[in-house]
Amino acid sequence: MRSRSQHPSGTRRLRFEHLENRWLLSGVGGDPNIPELLGPTGGTTVTTPSVTLEFKPLPGYSGPYMVRLHDLQWNGQQAPGFRHDSSLHYLSVLTSANRISVPVRPGAEYRWWVHKPDASAAKATFSVDRSVVPPGAPAQLSPLDGARVNASFVTLEFQPLPGYSGPYCVRLHDKNWNGQQVPGFRHDSTAHYLSITTTATRVKVPVRPGATYKWWVHRPDSAAAQATFTTTLTPELIDGRYRCTSLAAWSDRHIDVSQAIQHCIDVTPIGATLELPAGRYSIHRQIIVNRSITITSVGKSLDDPMCVDGAGDCATLIASPALNEPWGMLNMQRIQSLHHIILDGNKQARAGTPAFYHCANGTNNRYGMTAVLDCDDAQIVGNLFKNALGGTALEVRQDHDNVRIENNRFASNGVHDRRNLWSDGLTIHGLTNSQIIGNEFVDNTDIDLILGGSQNCLVQGNRFYHTSSRSGGSFAALMIHKWPTRSADYSGTEISFNIIDGGPGRNVGTGIYVGSEGWYPGTPLGWSSGNPVRASIHHNEVRNTKSGMYVAAEGFAIFDNQFSNAHGVSFPSSGRVLTSSAPIVVSPTAADIDFHGADQHPATRSMFEYQSWINCIPHWAI
């Protein structure tokens, strides 16, 4: 390729030939028209703030040489007039000298060339040590380039310049900085950006765990010294558990701690317990758990009471408005136990964010979720899942075995009267040999607990409550469901002794919905040829709902359930206005349902009626 430019005098034009087959290394080829490079030669590391480009003159040649220096991170702009430009780190000159000294940038890599006009060039590549201090710049003392800082604050320290008493410019830059200039060049601990003028030689500033920073110091209008360092958060081994002790420094600071928690997870040994200090922590990026470990709050045991909002004894992870990832804050691809942690989807503060619009536009409600579990042999105990933006607070994906979900609270997830912002409390795609027991569901706005198939599982002793808030209503409280792409086999599963209360406004469409036909065709099956043990739904209590139970399934045993104030009103659906004149509505599509001969109930007299609610999602509030 060719590069042309105007000589400063304007009287002649020069041509650099950069054809690759005409570039030669120093001393190679024996071409008498190619100068020999004396220094720096290829592979050299320069440890000074300037470098002398030196070559051996050609015998018998007295004309000018063309010398070029190119920073390999150069921005592509031609230096005017073949002059050296230290800002661009670019040199292109015509000279009769064979030694040229130029400043270079610490940590940079350069290539330089020399040749006669219209002749082949010798070239070499060299690098500059990162610790080099530019001329006139103060020497940095701490943190040095490449340092790892395990603290919530860092002191930027440098050596003052001899004989200089004026101010210094000090700058700190988080490499994940959002690009916003801090007004007045003052430090802003939220933006993690420092740009100040000071006479002090030690500046203490907060830093974000798990981040990479660069800092500079210089006199005004002079070259700067610079260094890059990272912050870490290493858990301590205390009483047999690993504890992210330093995490507490970032509680209520609106500083992203996701990378710090990720690091703590990644270094915790398999089978061990990782404790997070009680506090409120901002999560900007998804945390992935892919280790068989236990994660909990400091001092908590599996049999402790569930976390209570505002009690201050559990670690709370809060989704930042910056969080924009499917499946939310916590992606549990492998875990032994998650217990006594609060996960707050922060739905109000995230209104208008990209994640919000993924949900509100109906594009992908996974961006509104709080957490996902995608593994076998896991325990989810004593946690609080709240304020999911949409989708669900916790999703159990695929078919998983031996999962225990016990004594958790799922509360205030989603918004019932805003299209596409609905949220389940707990969404199960498929489970075997698992338990969902003793959980509490409050104002989850799609379905409080939805099952999409479960074999040999126990769903027992769960409590469902709704307040009088219209936005906190749900289409159904407990749904025994069939996803369109799954078989929905419930053989061997027992659903019993659950309590459902729609609240003073009867703010639940159907207490127990056994089917899927309000949403799409499909029939849950209470037994299979591989497991003929019939699924049973018994001794559940439903009160204060628009309708008690809707059955559009096959092969279930449904008996001894109690209903109070769970029929006799008209209510909207996505298809038409519905009215249940009895607590249990049986669809014409239902088959082989064993009601144990029950057809009367003392409080309601008639227990059953038969009608089709196909394409009618109950308690439609849009």
Tell me what you see in this structure.
This protein has 622 residues and is mostly beta strands. The protein has 2 helices and 59 strands.
In short:
This protein is an all-beta fold and 622 residues long.
| Uncertain stretches | 1-29, 181-191, 600-604
Largest sheet: 12 strands, mixed
- Roughly how many Å is the radius of gyration? 35 Å
Strand segment count: 59
Average pLDDT, all residues: 87
Q: Order of strands side by side in the largest beta sheet?
A: 20-21-22-25-28-31-35-39-43-46-49-52
The oligomeric status of these chains comes to single chain
List the total number of helices: 2
Q: Provide the structure class.
A: mainly beta
Distance between the termini: 65 Å
Proportion in β-strands: 35-45%
Question: How much helix is in the residues?
Answer: under 10%
Shape designation: elongated
What distinguishing features does this structure have?
single chain; mainly beta; 12-stranded mixed sheet; elongated; disordered N terminus
Structural topology:
Blueprint: E1 2-6, E2 13-17, E3 23-25, E4 36-39, E5 45-46, E6 50-56, E7 65-71, E8 90-95, E9 99-103, E10 109-115, E11 121-128, E12 139-142, E13 148-149, E14 153-159, E15 168-174, E16 193-198, E17 202-206, E18 212-218, E19 225-231, E20 236-238, E21 241-243, H1 258-267, E22 273-276, E23 279-283, E24 287-290, E25 294-297, E26 315-319, E27 330-334, E28 337-339, E29 341-344, H2 354-360, E30 371-373, E31 378-381, E32 384-386, E33 391-396, E34 400-401, E35 403-406, E36 409-411, E37 423-428, E38 431-432, E39 435-437, E40 440-442, E41 447-451, E42 454-455, E43 458-460, E44 463-465, E45 474-480, E46 494-496, E47 499-501, E48 508-514, E49 536-538, E50 541-543, E51 547-551, E52 557-559, E53 562-564, E54 570-571, E55 578-579, E56 584-586, E57 600-601, E58 605-606, E59 608-610
Parallel strand pairs: 3-11, 5-11, 13-19, 21-22, 22-25, 23-26, 24-27, 25-28, 26-29, 27-30, 28-31, 29-32, 30-33, 31-35, 32-36, 33-37, 34-38, 35-39, 36-40, 37-41, 38-42, 39-43, 40-44, 41-45, 43-46, 44-47, 45-48, 46-49, 47-50, 48-51, 49-52, 50-53, 51-56, 56-59
Antiparallel strand pairs: 1-2, 4-6, 6-9, 7-8, 7-10, 10-11, 12-14, 14-17, 15-16, 15-18, 18-19, 20-21, 54-55, 57-58
